[in-house]
Amino acid sequence: MSDIIVIGGGIAGVSAAARLASFGSVTLLESETALGYHASGRSAALFEADYGLPTTVALNMASAEYHKTANGGYLSPRGLLIVARSEDKDLFEKDKTEISIDVISPSEACEIVPILDPAKVAYAGYHGAAWDLDTDRMIQDFARVVRQNGGKVLTGEHVNAISRRDGHWQVVTNKTGHRAKLLVNAAGAWADTVARLAGVDPLGIVPHRRSIARLPAPGGYDVSAWPMFFGAGETWYAKPDAGKLLVSPADEDPMQPHDAYADDMVLAEGLARYEEMVTEPVTRVETNWAGLRSFAPDRTLVLGPDPVHPDFIWCAAQGGYGFQTAPAASQLVADLVTGNTPALDAGTVAALSPGRFR
Ligand SMILES: Cc1cc2nc3c(=O)[nH]c(=O)nc-3n(C[C@H](O)[C@H](O)[C@H](O)COP(=O)(O)OP(=O)(O)OC[C@H]3O[C@@H](n4cnc5c(N)ncnc54)[C@H](O)[C@@H]3O)c2cc1C
């Protein structure tokens, strides 16, 4: 018997479990044999505070100090560059208003990333306030906090059934049964599936596939200091990673929850969009993968108690922002569970609440 069961061992689940662990006994249940196996193990690991809708930006901003300072900090400098063809002027203008980039000349952009094709880049913008996140260490550090507070982090425990008896949740996994007063749903792509298991109305959270190809360093360049660079309108992006270059088609195809994998055609089309803007052809893809970014219908995270079943706590719909928002999102979940006043303003808290759908 625990006070709180958290379902899901991605960044959402471990961060929420860590924040709650000092308020009561916490048991985290994860289907897979390792934490972060699904979306959380497949991200591009960027922190960019302006990225997302206003509620997401509010969570990003409120998370920044944690990312910078907690446990020695999780950030290392990356920077962000947006490049556009002449026909993509409108997309570029839109990006410029959403992300506070400084407009630079195409030739400056080609100096920063020397494989960019000067004949193709018509518009460019840069800003330095974008960082790589050490996502693996974030997950492990949050899990350690759970254990240090006497909580349990159990992997290889797939939740098959959930029922409510005597004011408690009964959770049956492939291994055993668990009982708790509160249930936190941090099941990522399976958030609505878990809600249905618990007899709670789903919210219409839909997983969307996003793919990544890892290429050898193009042209043999040392890519390590290059910024993350995007096609205007997020039609593709590329990011240095351990001496290689990750390229994503920035796909967003709705899917059923599953162990996602990249579609060859989607990858090929995305690589072609990237290739159009660079001078180095793609000669080899070393590996590729895909993950599911799960969105609520309004593309805003869902954080807090279900209004009909207040002992069922949503920590879901992190979309493409699960890591950058995690410190503040998990703090908000803990504040709402424990009755503390959230640091976020009331309008943002209401906009993130599952109550907005009921
Ligand atoms: C290609 C890509 C790039 C991205 N880039 C970024 C980025 O740069 N910055 C950023 O902040 N975010 C990024 N994201 C988004 C980020 O990865 C996600 O928002 C985040 O990982 C979601 O975390 P989660 O814990 O909700 O989901 P998950 O990591 O998927 O975790 C959910 C867990 O719940 C478990 N589960 C489900 N059902 C059950 C059950 N019945 N019983 C037990 N366990 C269950 C699953 O096994 C899974 O491990 C990216 C995502 C992708 C795919």
Describe this structure in words.
The structure is a single chain. It contains 9 helices and 20 strands. Helix 1 runs parallel beside helix 8 (322-338). The mean pLDDT is 97. A hairpin with a 2-residue loop joins strand 15 and strand 16. The strands form 3 sheets. Strands 5, 6, 7, 13, 14, 15, 16, 17 and 18 form a 9-stranded mixed beta sheet that branches. Strands 1, 2, 9, 10, 11, 12, 19 and 20 form an 8-stranded mixed beta sheet that branches. Strands 3-8-4 form a 3-stranded antiparallel beta sheet. It is α+β, with helices and mostly antiparallel strands. It binds flavin-adenine dinucleotide. Flavin-adenine dinucleotide binds next to helix 1, strand 2, strand 13, strand 18 and helix 8.
Number of strands: 20
Number of helices: 9
Biggest sheet architecture:
9 strands, mixed
The assigned structural class equals alpha+beta
- Summed over residues and divided by their number, the pLDDT gives a mean of 97
Shape: elongated
